[in-house]
Amino acid sequence: MKLYDTQMAPNPRRARIFIAEKGLDIPRQEVSIIEGDNLKPEYLAVNPWGTLPALELDDGNVITEAPCIMRYLEALHPEPNLLGRDPLEAARIEAWERFCEMNGMQAVGEFFRNKFEPFAERAMPGYSGVKTIPALVERGKQRVAFFHAQLEKRLAESEYLGGDRFTAADITGLCAVDFGKGVGLPFPEGNQATARWHAAVSARPSAAN
Ligand SMILES: N[C@@H](CCC(=O)N[C@@H](CS)C(=O)NCC(=O)O)C(=O)O
Known about the structure:
Blueprint: E1 2-5, H1 10-21, E2 28-30, H2 41-44, E3 54-56, E4 62-64, H3 66-76, H4 87-115, H5 136-157, H6 168-182, H7 192-202
Parallel strand pairs: 1-2
Antiparallel strand pairs: 1-3, 3-4
The structure holds glutathione.
Glutathione binds at residues 9-11, 33, 38, 50-53, 65-67, 122, 125-126.
């Protein structure tokens, strides 16, 4: 197996943290998004969407999308469980994992990609040719504020996003929150429940990835 990875990017980080939590050692190949190496024919032959992460299996099959990589690895290595031990827990974890991707990760991306000049011709991750729309900077900011508010509400009543233990929902939540912080949209200082959760998940050795 080989993980196509970009050290500075939040979606590959979801896969890296998951792999670390499973205690797996999967070789990585760095593909530079900044240099546009993910849009070159060599990588498009691996993943025609040009996005990272991608997991290449020994038989040549390629799995794209961070949650699908998680699902595949969880099936091969069930412990420690990160995707749910029963149907209800699995549904709760997936709901929060999806929420964090769609309302956190993608909202920060909307702000960031439409704001920063180097992405003028790269409004969407990977291969699309879609151009930026400046008004989406403000919408992205509003979406991130909504994300932070929902996170705070959830974490005021639940220790972790999926329930009372660390799961894949926390991995995507952490990556989205840190991505926001990295581009100038940290969670508000008064969000104490989020701060408590963020300190706990960031202290896990896997978060260093
Ligand atoms: N839904 C995808 C999202 C992947 C994604 O957006 N990856 C970003 C890096 S964080 C990317 O490939 N960007 C390439 C680019 O900007 O051209 C997943 O779950 O893996």
